[in-house]
Design goal:
There is one protein chain. With 396 residues, this protein is an alpha/beta fold. It folds into two domains: 237 residues, Rossmann fold, CATH 3.40.50; 147 residues, 3-Layer(aba) Sandwich (Rossmann fold), CATH 3.40.50. It is built from 15 helices and 16 strands. The strands form four sheets. Strands 7-6-8-9-10-15-16 form a seven-stranded mixed sheet, with helices on both faces. It is globular, with a radius of gyration of 21 Å.
Length: 396
C-alpha cells in the first residue's frame, strides 16, 4: 500500500533548502543527431507538463519548475556526458528527463547521474541492458525495454505470414539490443534470420552493407536503426538497388521525416512503436494541440516525455523534497496503483491530492505502470505505412 503522507516537520527540514525555490529539470534529448526530428516534440511535451504544474500553483513549498535543454546528440557518449555534467554542475538541475538513445543514456547514468545522485527518467532509452545496469535506484524509463519490443515484432511478422527476414542494425547500444531481441523472438516462433549485420551511422554510401543483406536474402528487411541517419540510408540504398521493397520498422525508425525522405517506396512497410490507446493519450493530444505553442504529441516518444516530466514532479511532491536521493523512493509509488487515477491535464489535481495524503495512480498519456527496476510494462502500436503515413493497425 502506498503511503503518501502530509509533510512532517522532519520532511520539511530535509527539503528546507528547496522551499520557495526555482527547481530546474534537465530536458536531455538529441536535438542534433540521428533522431533530431523527434527531439522538438519530445522537449515540448516535457515542457508542457512543467507549465501545467506551474500554472496550477499547487507545488509544495511554492516551488516553480524550469526546464533546461541539453543535447545528447543520441550517439556521442563523450558529448552527452559533458552536456549532462553541465546540467548538474552549472545549471543545478534536480532531475533529468532523458536521455533519449540508449548508449548516451548509459554513459550519462554511469558518469554523471550516479556519482552526483541525480534521478533520470528516460522517455525513449530502450536497450535491455539498462534493465540490469547498476543505477543506485536513480534510473527509470517510461518506454518499455526492447526485449518486449522484440517479442511484439516477432508476433507481427508471424501474423503477416513472414517466414524469413534479414536484419540491419545501427552499430549502437540501441541497435544491438533491438536486433538481438527481434532475432531471438522470431527464431523462437520458427522464423529464419538470414543475416543480422550492423551498419554505421553517418555514412554517405551503404551499397556494401546492402549487397551483403541482399546476398543473404529474406522476405523483409528489418531495420533496427535511426530514422534520420543510417537506417534511412539502408532503406534508400535497398530501394535504389532493388534489394528489398518491404521493411520492418522498430521504434527508432518511426517519425514523419522518414516517409518524407523516402517517398512512396516506403508504402507497405510496417512495424511497431511504444504507444497507448489509453484515454490519456487522446487527452494529451488535445492539450498539445491547444497549447500556446501547439505540437503533435502523437509523434514518437512525445507522450513518454510528458509522463517522465510529470513523474519527477509528482515524486518530489510525494517526498516533499527536491533531493533526488529522497524523491527517488516515491517514483514507483506515484506511478502505480493503488490510488486515484491521474490523466494529462490533471497534474494540479494530483499535487493537491498528494498534499492531502491521498494516494494517486498516475496513468498519464501512456497508461503508466512501472515494473521491476522502474521501467514501463508498455504497450505497442502496430502500423503500416500507407501514402506516407503511419496508419495504426492495432495495439499489442
Amino acid at each position: 500500500m502506498k503511503k503518501l503522507l502530509l509533510a512532517s516537520a522532519a520532511c520539511a527540514l530535509v527539503s528546507g533548502a528547496a522551499s520557495a525555490e526555482e527547481v530546474k529539470l534537465g530536458i536531455f534529448v538529441g536535438f542534433t543527431g540521428p533522431i533530431e526530428s523527434l527531439a522538438p516534440n519530445m522537449a515540448a511535451a516535457a515542457e508542457l507538463a512543467i507549465a501545467e504544474v506551474n500554472a496550477s500553483g499547487k507545488a509544495a513549498n511554492g516551488w516553480t519548475f524550469t526546464g533546461v535543454r541539453a543535447d545528447t546528440t543520441c550517439v556521442d557518449a563523450a558529448a552527452a556526458t559533458a552536456a549532462a555534467e553541465r546540467l548538474v554542475t552549472a545549471d543545478g538541475v534536480k532531475g533529468i528527463i532523458g536521455g533519449d538513445c540508449s548508449g548516451v543514456t548509459r554513459a550519462a547514468l554511469t558518469n554523471v547521474a550516479m556519482p552526483n545522485g541525480i534521478v533520470m527518467i528516460s522517455p525513449s532509452a530502450t536497450s535491455p541492458a539498462l534493465t540490469d545496469d547498476p543505477d543506485n535506484g536513480l534510473f527509470f524509463r517510461t518506454a518499455p525495454s526492447d526485449a518486449r519490443e522484440g517479442e511484439v515484432m516477432a508476433n507481427i511478422l508471424v501474423e503477416r505470414g513472414i517466414k524469413s527476414i534479414a536484419i540491419s542494425y545501427s552499430n549502437s547500444d540501441y541497435g544491438k539490443g533491438q536486433s538481438e531481441a527481434i532475432a531471438k523472438s522470431f527464431e523462437a516462433l520458427g522464423g529464419t534470420v538470414t543475416i543480422n549485420a550492423s551498419h554505421d551511422d553517418g555514412k554517405a554510401d551503404y551499397s556494401a552493407e546492402v549487397a551483403a543483406l541482399a546476398a543473404a536474402g529474406g522476405e523483409v528487411l528489418v531495420v533496427a536503426g535511426y530514422l534520420d541517419q543510417g537506417g534511412k540510408g539502408i532503406i534508400q540504398a535497398s530501394l535504389d538497388t532493388g534489394a528489398f521493397s518491404v521493411f520492418g520498422l522498430p521504434g527508432g525508425m518511426v517519425g514523419d521525416s522518414l516517409p518524407a525522405a523516402i517517398g512512396p517506396g516506403l508504402d507497405g512497410s510496417f512495424g511497431q512503436i511504444a504507444g497507448s490507446d489509453s484515454d490519456g493519450n487522446t487527452i494529451l493530444k488535445d492539450i498539445a494541440a491547444a497549447a500556446a505553442t501547439p505540437f503533435d504529441s502523437t509523434t514518437a516518444y512525445s507522450s513518454e516525455s510528458y509522463d517522465a516530466a510529470a513523474l519527477i514532479m509528482l515524486a518530489m511532491q510525494a517526498a516533499n523534497s527536491t533531493d533526488p536521493n529522497v524523491y527517488k523512493n516515491k517514483v514507483m509509488d506515484v506511478a502505480n496503483a493503488p490510488g486515484e487515477k491521474i490523466n494529462p491535464g490533471e497534474l494540479g489535481k494530483a499535487l493537491e491530492l498528494i498534499s492531502q495524503g491521498v494516494d494517486i495512480d498516475y496513468q498519464g498519456a501512456t497508461g503508466v505502470e512501472l515494473i521491476g527496476p522502474g521501467e514501463s510494462a508498455g504497450r505497442y502500436r502496430e502500423f503500416t505505412v500507407t501514402d506516407g503515413k503511419y496508419e495504426t493497425v492495432k495495439y499489442h
